[in-house]
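Reopening this one. Same input as before:
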Amino acid sequence: MRVVVLLATLAHAASAQESVMLRISPRVGDTLHTVLEQQTDVSVTMPGNTSAPAKSMSSTVTIHSQTVVRLVQKGSATVLTTVDSARLTSTDTHASEMTANAQRTLEGQQLLLQLGADGTVESARDIRGALVKREVADAMASMPAVFPKHAVSVGQQWTREMPLPSGGPFGAKGSGRAHATFRLDSLRKNGAVAYVSMHGEIVPDSASQGVEISGSISGSMQLDRVRGWMTDSRFLVIVRSLVVPPTVSGLAPMRFITKVTQRLRTLEKR
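Same output, byte for byte:
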């Protein structure tokens, strides 16, 4: 019995020390069906003004899309992503027309994306070949740059920095970055599936222009190393921003708290 236990312990230790590469590496012709679900909750208060009630707003986005792998080269893959359907909702009645327009714009949207092996969106163009904004490309790719450039073993950590959408939250002029620590938690199915967790903080690029930003980010993801694609990811982002207008404007400071909950799933082949 002791021999069996010892062998099992040694096997587990060897497995834990195995180094693997975590990579986006699909095959040409692969078609990946994904669904992105995101809820955003925003609350607004005026510090020091107890007579002004807090305001809140919630919005949801559900996007079904398919991604066809067009080209695979060393270190990158070119894919065509098409939005099959999009549904947007908002508790802000004043934004109903904007929400409807955004939904119509998203449906049928097609982008040619070049993805790095670590998940980075290296380039993005629409179907006509025109460059698109980075935040649009990141939203459609739904593939954050999370993987290290070297092999890692179970329990090992690495850090990455990810930019927040340009312009900062709520259209403010401040900007920030998410500084995150990732960890390879485990390998399952003989190393075919990697489970990764992450946590980090949001730090400002600059505290100038009257905007202070802070916050946190956490999440988990599964990488199918056989398919070379992320099959399930969950993220929670909390951003706190304080907007202090110039004194001469006569406007009061405003504090925003934004909570973004996102899940991205790759569905089984249909």
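So the earlier flakiness isn't reproducible anymore. For the record, DSSP finds three helices and 13 strands in the chain.
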